[in-house]
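Subject: Predicted fold for Protein SEC13 homolog, 309 residues

User T.R. writes:
Posting the sequence so we have a shared reference for the thread.
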Amino acid sequence: MLSIISSFETRNKRQILSSDIDYYNKYVCTSSADGVIHIFESDKPDMYSAIQLQEHVGPVWQVMFSHPKFGFLASCGSDCKLIVRKTNDDGEWKIVYQYDGHKSSTTSIDWAPYKSGAIIACSSADGTISIHTLNNNEWSVSKIPNAHLNGVNCINWSNQLLNNHLLLVSGGNDNKIKIWEGQLGMWNAMYESDNQLATIKDISWNPTPGLYKHIFASCASNGRVFVWGSDDCCDWVQIEIDPENNQKQKVSFSRFGTVLSVTMNSYAVKLWKQIDKQTWMCMERNITNKKTLDYQDKNVNQDIFAAIA
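User M.O. replies:
I've generated the structure tokens; pasting them so everyone works from the same file.
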């Protein structure tokens, strides 16, 4: 059973929307509906030592550290921007790249596997996905137009390459899931799901091969969670997780891919482990305690594995 080992106050004036911890557990980063990003040092997480970043206007939907090989911190928000920062010699987080080419809120970001280089994907409510690549200290961008009708809500990279090509999965307001294959800066939809009858809220790709070579989980606004498995990324098998409960918000695989977490509206997180190709077993039902969250008014749509190294 998981338990809280530490907690601390932040200066956020509104709901916390996202959090992340860097690779070496040195920094804890939070973003908020007040438009402010806070960075804490994990060994002294008090509000007075926090670094505040206020380049966004409006809610900051997500923050994410890159692999330490690159040392970046990225964020996206309702102001339609993607911002990438890096620390200088004085320990200040300075903007090294900013993209404002989306026409609506940037909803989600994800760094590609570090062996592929410094690449970050950014989804938007304008229905497009932008892919940003660093080469020779210069950033270039390619775009997936019309990725999802009425907006893209979530994206996630696969750690597994297919024919030496990157794979990106996305979900949107068109109730569909799509898998994109990158080839020489071009992105082709190699798979498109049938209509899932509800908005796709979150997606998590398993970082390691399991009983299937490729596995990802999806969560929809009707509370249905599916685990998708395939050996070729073309033919997919769907297994529904916990169909009785319709209050699910977020899905996330652990770093080694052995456990799937499902965040509930009831301030609880369930952990699931695969037994065979058709069976998933619930391991835990009460990780998050409502009382510990009420006084902070935290958003329950959190990735618990973002806070576990």
